[in-house]
Amino acid sequence: MVLKEIALSSHRERWLKKKSLHLFWRVIAVLPDEPYVRWKYFSLSGRFPDLHNPSLFTEKVQFRKLYDRNPLYPALVDKYAAKAFIAERAGSEYVIETYWVGRDLEKIEWDQIPLPAVVKPTHGSGDGVFLHSRSDVDKLLRNNPAPYWMAQRHDRINREWAYRQLVPQVIIERMLGENGSALDDYRFFVFSGKVALIELRLRRDGIGYECYYTPDWKKMGLCSNYYSPYLRERPRPAQLEEMLEVARRIAGDIDFMRVDLYLEGGNVYVGELTLYPGGGFHGSVPDLIDKSLGNLWTVQIGQIGGP
After folding, report:
1. Please, which of 204, 208, 212, 276 could form a disulfide with 227 given CB 3.0 to 4.6 Å?
2. How many domains, the chain?
3. What is the distance between the terminal CA atoms of the chain, rounded to a whole angstrom?
4. Residue 2: predicted pLDDT
5. CB 150 within 8 Å of CB 171
6. If we measure between CA atoms, which residue out of 255, 259, 257, 228 comes closest to residue 242?
7. What is the DSSP-derived secondary structure letter of residue 175?
8. Can you give the pTM of this predicted structure?
9. Do 239 and 291 sit in the same domain of this protein?
10. Is the pLDDT of residue 18 over 70?
11. Which of 156, 175, 194 is the last residue in one of the domains?
């Protein structure tokens, strides 16, 4: 009898690896913040982070989560509270219009909500519902994701301190888009007021892509492998200088912030402000620039109170 080699498909392998990781994270969830962060980082990158003398960008995100208690941070990660901060630093014209904020979707006067609109938690990432018509509203109310959203704890999932300090809510805001298509997402990495990198996330034919540009719009041969690399060139945005200025003004002198911007009809809008990109784990930035981005991030370890 001849034994045939049994090989798993790449899809099956990825599925098994993902399931194994989630099981491991559930096992270590009982750990205090620092050992949890160390083990989760190890599970994704194959090595432990240096938290005593962090040098990589991903290590400094872990350091921020564990030790940096800047009182500004809770308002910055709150999608509703951040709007006042954005308006103060850059101008109200860059703020996406809010239609409603609260915790109980049943209390909304839906005839007062212009469509299309987006419904999402103020503290979440990747969650949200698009409302194009009244039938979408009816479906939203039947399924009502608000209780699930309110129970999400980013301060437990990735141990991101700032989320521990805010009250979760649901926000409804104007849906951005052009010709029925989602807008490209321009992510500006800003270190102490200087833009160092632009990450571009885009969707084409339902597929997510990513690519990276320098602040003067030169494409970089990088990919974090979160999405497939976008191999074609994207034209330099006509509003690039304005976008750079908005990102710099919002981030100010904060040692690091990612400012996410959109372009609609020639106008610039701020999507969100990010302090802990991808939780600072493997894939949050391309491996090739983990060190160089870390060099740009000046962390005053003694002043923050780290190890």
Report:
1. 208
2. 2
3. 61
4. 42
5. no
6. 259
7. P
8. 0.92
9. yes
10. yes
11. 175
